[in-house]
Amino acid sequence: MKLFIDSANLEHIREMADLGILAGVTTNPSLMAKEGKDVTSVLREIASLVDGPISGEVISLKADEMVEEGRHIAALHPNMVVKIPMIPEGIKAVKQLTEEGIRTNVTLVFTLSQALLACNAGATYISPFVGRLDDIQFDGIGLIEEIRDMIDVFGFNAEIISASIRNTKHIQDSIRAGAHIATVPYEILKKAFNHPLTDSGLKAFLEDHQKAFGK
Ligand code: G3P
């Protein structure tokens, strides 16, 4: 499973990219608003930091306006992917952008039938929101499993981006459920590195070396 960072913070993206773990980046309007910078410049900067799919989200609600926005986003860099909300006008825009050879990421997916609609329109990526489903007592990871089965059985080309990741268990469960990608917030990516036995084990190795060789 590939790892993306779910962020529009350039320092956080740079730090994780430098560690060599990132295959792509997803943004959304809320993440962009948090940074308070010009969205186009932020997307360009992100594309210069990470060599992989970079999702930039449209904010229009009409298909033809989404397509216009999508063309603008796609023109920023060859790695750009147009993130489109899972609404009828969005699906219409996905179909059009797909025909133009522009990659799309259908976001705010909460059911298997929504995922099916996105697949049929030609979506490149589908983003089920695991954490937000868990928040309302639904099985977010179960939805990832169902979508993966559907993609495999019917031979769709779409890849699943497990989104709305709230903890490191969500990362692990996304692997087991067959997500192609997990897009993970900065703080959770940092936590994924840690284990107390790694720390105590390293400490013991270095102390043993010091005792034996004195350096
Ligand atoms: O970018 C989409 C998704 O990952 C949002 O996550 O935490 O706002 O539910 P969250």
Keywords:
single chain, 215 residues, alpha/beta
Specify the overall morphology: globular
| Strand composition percent | 15-25%
Instruction: Catalogue the unreliable spans.
Output: none
Mean pLDDT: 98
The N- and C-terminal alpha carbons lie at a distance of 40 Å
Strand order of the largest sheet: 1-2-3-4-5-6-7-8
Number of strands: 8
Helix-strand pattern, N to C? EHEHHEHEHEHEHHEHEHH
Helix content: 55-70%
Largest sheet: 8 strands, parallel, barrel
What is the number of helical segments per DSSP (H or I, 4+ residues)? 11
Named once each, the bound ligands are: SN-glycerol-3-phosphate
Rg over CA atoms, rounded to whole Å, is: 19 Å
Alpha-beta content class: alpha/beta
How would the blueprint of this fold be written?
Blueprint: E1 2-6, H1 10-18, E2 24-26, H2 29-35, H3 39-49, E3 54-57, H4 63-76, E4 80-85, H5 88-99, E5 104-109, H6 112-121, E6 125-128, H7 130-135, H8 140-154, E7 159-162, H9 168-177, E8 181-184, H10 186-192, H11 196-213
The structure holds SN-glycerol-3-phosphate.
